[in-house]
Amino acid sequence: MAAIAAEVLTTARLVLRPLAPADAPAVAALAGEWEVARYTQRIPHPYPDGAAEAFIAQVAADRADGHAEVFAVTRRDDGTFLGNIGLEQADRPGEVEVGYWLGRPYWGAGYATEAVRAAIRHAFGFPEAQLVFAEIHPDNVASRRVLEKAGLREAGRVQGRLRGVPVETIRLEIARPQPLPTLLVAAVALIDADGRVLLAQRPPGKAMAGLWEFPGGKVHADETPEAALVRELAEELGIDTAERCLAPLTFASHRYETFHLLMPLFACRNWRGTPTAMEGQRLAWVRPNQLRDYPMPPADEPLVAMLRDLL
Question: Residues 151-172: pLDDT tens digits?
Fold first, then answer.
């Protein structure tokens, strides 16, 4: 990888940012636990005084020469430090190794998978990166499950070292995704006088049936996203609005298995008529702080945090 500029990666619940000297106490406290360090190659145990400061300084040097990039994994809503995730250029051209750890209080909440997915997307943002891999101890079942959820698959066994002892490790890999056709879909957050947002549940027989989403639909070749929403709202909900009533908020960009979804999200507070389920879907008016209670397709999930911030 070329020299890396400090970047910040944002997901639905996390912010991945460059490590800072102020993170040293949290690094030492969390990484110092044996259950965190036991399956890692580089975390010393017991964790010595000054090791966190030295690690953070080395990370900055590695970033400057383009050899590696390490992020602090923090919670988006309150900034809590959860752990680290890193990308390192391997000896074989085009290969990047991913490694991570999270403090024990934050295990089992899906944070690790979310961070690994973000790191992989970031790695493939560099054109020279063709493959991301990880090597784990066979007994590290939890880490294997995280990596497999993020799309990596076992590629064989390799000889490695764990805490200075030779050991056979499992190598998991994910190759650079092939380009997919882009599907343009427009969606809208209808906001009523009480500040509630309308969600629609996908009916049985449709892909991702049972999940909740913002109303909208595909943009035809001869339409703008605004025109598509005016049409879709009339067809799906029986309401009438105008393009000037649609205010752009944000957008989703998500890779599904067979297509890449690009979805601008608009806000609308003015329409005529009462939203009615015209296509067999269920409707729900939801307060912004309760949107997380409604399971959504992967592309919609990141929009919730952004919508809550804006409302």
Answer: 999 999 998 777 778 889 999 9
